[in-house]
Amino acid sequence: MSNISVELCGLRMASPLMLASGILGETGPSLLKVIGAGAGAVVTKSIGKVPRDGYPNPTVTEVDGGLLNAIGLSNPGIEAYLEELGIAVKGAKGTPIIASIFGGEAQECAGLARAMEKGGVAAIEMNLGCPHAKGLGADIGSDAGLVKEFTVAVKAAVKVPVLVKITPNVTDITAIAQAVEEGGGDAIVAINTVRGMAIDADLERPILSNKLGGLSGPAIKPVGLAAVYRIYDKVKVPIIGVGGITSARDVAEYLMAGASAVQIGTAVWRDGVGVFGRINRDLKAFMAKHGHKTVADMVGVAHRA
């Protein structure tokens, strides 16, 4: 019988499917709902040091092949969020809860990581990929030197694993991935959203209030796959694949490209939390059909073709 459990950076997960940051990660009960639906791990909403309103509406619009968002990293700040985190940690029953953090300075991120670790999270995910928040996310993540600096600082601050989510909006994503590894990062999360925009042709103006946003969903799966495939040849740390996953075959493709686990976001918005149970069942069937006993059997096999 096929076994879909995985071990990633010392974290034991019943499934390689993780909730991506930004969807249902705002409250403790919403995180627990996703865990109950079959996610192997969950990632919180990206949290900063102080409350942040983000951009005014409209901040999200549906486009062909996915979603375009410019929410602007809105969040309640670390002090308020720790209460929600406590609810999730208490009810998680062993499922890893991973805290997504962001900040404009390396030591700011280090402080957030320490607070999240004290709050009981199993790992930290540093958001260096958001494409629409000035001075944050991809503005830092597009510079390999800064990526290494931030990774070193957060690694020094905590004992739990540190994952770094990187942006595809760069000339060479492998250089950014290597900077994470050189900084001591335990895993690379690839990819964050692809920069894009939508225009209302009747109103003759951009739809999003911020004009530019981040594209997620099936339209970016080929971009995510290419990133994971290229990174796999350049680093030794595990890769978590993100971008456009809606089915077990999508998961298999990311695994074969070199991912050890995957994150799902837009499909949860579209299909609800039941997407985790469906893909878990279908993944077991896919593995049985193709003779794969474990998830690890599939990791990187496309590189041997």
Overall strand count = 16
Largest sheet entry: 8 strands, parallel, barrel
> What is the number of helices?
10
Succession of helices and strands: EEEHEEEHEHEHHEHEEEEEHEHEHH
Shape: globular
Which architecture per CATH? Alpha-Beta Barrel
Secondary-structure content class: alpha/beta
Helix content: 25-40%
**CATH-derived topology:** TIM Barrel
Q: Compute the CA-based radius of gyration.
A: 18 Å
Unreliable sequence segments: none
Distance between the termini: 25 Å
Strand content: 15-25%
CATH class membership: Alpha Beta
Number of domains: 1
CATH superfamily: Aldolase class I
Calculate the mean pLDDT score and round it.
97
Could you please describe the fold and organization of this structure?
With 305 residues, this protein is α/β, with parallel strands linked by helices. The protein has a single domain, classed as TIM Barrel. It has helices spanning 28-36, 78-91, 106-118, 138-141, 144-157, 173-182, 221-232, 248-257, 266-271, 274-290; strands at residues 6-8, 11-13, 17-19, 41-43, 60-63, 66-69, 97-101, 123-128, 162-166, 187-190, 194-197, 199-200, 205-206, 212-216, 239-242, 261-264. Helix 8 links the parallel strand 15 and strand 16.
